[in-house]
Amino acid sequence: MSTAESGVHLAGLVSLVIPAHNEAANLPRVLPAARAVLVALADEFEIVLVDDGSTDQTVAVARSEMGQDGARLRVVSHARKSGYGITVADGLRAARGQWVAFMDGDGQFDPMDLGRLAERAADADLITGWRQRRADPWHRSVVSHTFNLLVRLLYGISYRDVDCGFKLMRRQVLDAASPLLARSALLNTEIYFKAQRSGLRVAQVGLTHHPRLAGVRSGGRLRPILRAVGELVRLRLELARSWSPKGASPS
Predict the structure, then answer these.
(1) How far is it, in rounded angstroms, from Cα 112 to Cα 76?
(2) Cα 126 from chain centroid?
(3) Could you report the per-residue pLDDT of 175-207, keeping only the tens digit for each?
(4) Which strand (E) or helix (H) includes residue 77?
(5) Domains of the chain, with CATH numbers?
(6) Across the strands, what pairs with 50?
(7) Which helix (H) or strand (E) covers residue 127, if one does?
(8) Segment (H or E) for 189
């Protein structure tokens, strides 16, 4: 069933954050589908493209692909590559919607699946995707499994595929998660942790993960993986020391 046929509607402005580094070849597939699903879901929407130091025509292609919806595109630009966590966090801070989603710009998720996440909006505050089968090399699945195991042990989070880069949330979730501290893909863990500790409702939806058809995969290298594992511990200690839900003590 399509989004339009399901009758799902998100009240107020809906923001879709798309982090992108050298994704000029993928945006012609991603943005038209994103526009189509947002038109069906919301009365008002914006797309926040965070250009993470691209050296290709990512921004120019994005503006071209928006067509008559060009005024709905907002671009946040990094002078140099800053990495996934910083890029997504900058997009979330720039988003103005009552509902905010983020989705990778590499074409490995179908933007139309935003409608599937929105189907859970009536009974959840944070709706997240999980990849039913990763369309990545086997070693990335091993890394992801190990990462998720460490997250469960250190953070008490038992959700599937925590670092899946496709999420939809109410503004209330962002307010509860502010300020965002993580500077890597651990941003996903931080959002889950703060939402759970704040008593917000979390739902998950299984999604199809598609192979990357163009561009260069930026994740999965040893150095950022080791950095993320080290940050797992540092962030957990920082959260215990300095963050707590409103009206509660740090733990």
Answers:
(1) 23
(2) 11
(3) 999 999 988 888 999 999 999 999 999 999 999
(4) strand 73-78
(5) 9-242 (3.90.550.10)
(6) 19, 76
(7) strand 126-131
(8) helix 187-197
